[in-house]
Amino acid sequence: MVKNPRCLYHSDFLSFLSQSTDSVFGMLCDGYHGDTLTTTREAWKSEIEIMKSVLSALPDQTGQIIFEYDIPRLGKRIDVVLLYRGIVFCLEFKVGESKIFEADVDQVLDYALDLKNFHKFSQEKVIVPILVATKFSDHTTSVQMSVYDDRVVNPLVTGETSLLNTIVQVFNRFPNETAVNKDWIISPYAPTPTIVEAAKTLYENHSVENITRHEADQVSTDQTISYILDVIQKSKLNREKSICFVTGVPGAGKTLVGLDVAVKQTYQGKDTPVEDEGAVYLSGNGPLVAVLTEALAKDNYQKCRDRKENKKLSDSRREVGKFIQMIHRYRDNMLAKIKNPVENGVLEIDPEKAVKLAKAGYGEVEHVAIFDEAQRSWTHKRLADYLKRGGTYGNKLKVPNFPLSEAAFLIWSLDQREDWATIICLVGGGQEINTGEAGISEWIDALNEKFPHWKVYISPKLTEPEYAEGRVNALLAENKSVTYSESLHLGVSLRSYRAEKLSAFVHALLAIEPNAAELYREIKDRYPIVLTRDMKKAREWLHSKVRGTERTGILVTKESARFKPLAIHVLPSGDENAVHWFLEDKTDTRSSNYLEDAATEIQVQGLELDYTCLLWDADMRYDAGKWRFYRFNGQTKWVEQIPSSESKQELMKYMLNAYRVLLTRARAGMVICVPSGNANKNPSGFWEDSTRLPEFYDGTYAYLKKLGIEEI
Fold this sequence. Notes:
- Helices cover 35% and strands 17% of the residues.
- The chain has 712 residues and is of the alpha/beta class.
- The strands form four sheets. Strands 7, 8, 9, 10, 11, 12, 13 and 14 form an eight-stranded parallel sheet that branches.
- Helix 13 packs across helix 14.
- The longest helix has 21 residues, at 286-306.
- The two termini are 52 Å apart.
- Mean pLDDT is 85; it is low at 211-218.
């Protein structure tokens, strides 16, 4: 038996058969971290006995057996892996169960797909998922390869008595497989977590190092995290204030980096948070915070229930709420401390409204604040107008004549600490999608004008056109406290594990650059993008692709207006709707998988699905080599948006960015549906639907097809 951190037990067949059940069981218990439940212990004993019976009856005993093999992306373990005759068998046991449930089949299929997609030494092997419901009286009689031609066998189901026969069927079906790599157990592991899955693992105080890819040298999340933690330590030692700007392509792991920095800084390798070393993860993205919080809370609640701990779901939500928070609530907590009204444009703490702490001063208790999607912070005008009316968060404070932008106020808030502080700004390029979102220039203006004593650490990519309209160099020209580091840029998409050039392709597509078609050709074989004019075909394509518990969904921009004729409804606003859309399983009609409710860029930014359908409406149209932008008047017609003013130019930028967000939400592939419109006329010769004329869509469709995107 060989000890390995990825499993609880690993042995060759002969050694396993020579050991007693109690001996193997003891090794499983010794390797398990935490108290094992009685049900788990009993299941292990049954699995050991069953596997001894099966392996002893095989024609030869030259394979390997692994119990409880860790899959970090899912935060779970495969019950048993057999490496036998060049085949990888994944076994999920349901001890004492006599029925087969779809969720259990999906579970074992997910394990197989995870090994296929992310486990280097499994990628070319036949992988066989087997569900063993021990009391099930029947078994799968046909071993069939998946239609996806990926060497993953369709899930097999069996009972205890038929397991041997099922395994024999498999190696008879694939008799000429080459041996599995001898180092399979320590294979480079390359999972690409969804944000929700990653956050669940992080919340359990595991490292992001276990759930991100490592064999690709370009993947730099670890390097970025290390650099940020080093800046934090420098700030602490030198008792100074610092700010880091982290850039990254869509899906590169910015949110993941932020979550991991928050965990590492807060726990520093210990089981409990380190006193006075805390970090907080903040986002202005309501759906993202709601989905993360609910996913983490439910996960924590279930783990506590499994351990027989008496805990309410509301307690778990409250616990998670300390770690992940809406930036508006953090902001409003600081607002409650200021003198109001503001005099002479200067913010001051009102000592009657706040307690001065020995180390924090009047600041918040965390030394480190991580602001996700910092480019979406509000302009001075938007924040001042909002506070003049009285906000909708917190205690609805009214603050007339508020003098700062949101970025400046957040820096001011951390500046109230009298010892040290670090801000980490996670910045998405070209992803401002709402009126009043300032972009990154507001942060730099604030540092230059009001906080010159802050040390600035910045990604060189921040100087590119999609950040602050390319004005970063000019804005920072006179700032002597700036350090540039490549470590603060995440250049490889983790979300789209099959197409690291997806972001470059989307950028070229939207910028109408001549290399867009070439970039598409480079990614199409690994990351399918297809085109259709028929939503029925789009749905069929999605259903044909998604497997196990993979997620799919329909996306539209918030400016889309004429989707109802295509039997599409837009997901209602409200964070709870996003929670259901992203988290409910495929049996729940509120789930994204039902392909009935389409989510907008507001609801999906920062989150992802496996496969998506982007429904391209008439709000953005390709015409004669450029994009033209339209807004529906809510009744009879689309009104073209002309860049006649700064606000109109901003609106057009937001509309373009909306498509950038939606085109980068899929991890595995997408279908783009550009409707045909309605070409029918009534008996009087007038258009049946003048809001959906074919000409509104044809140019966009022709442009996408010209890029070479395959039509289905």
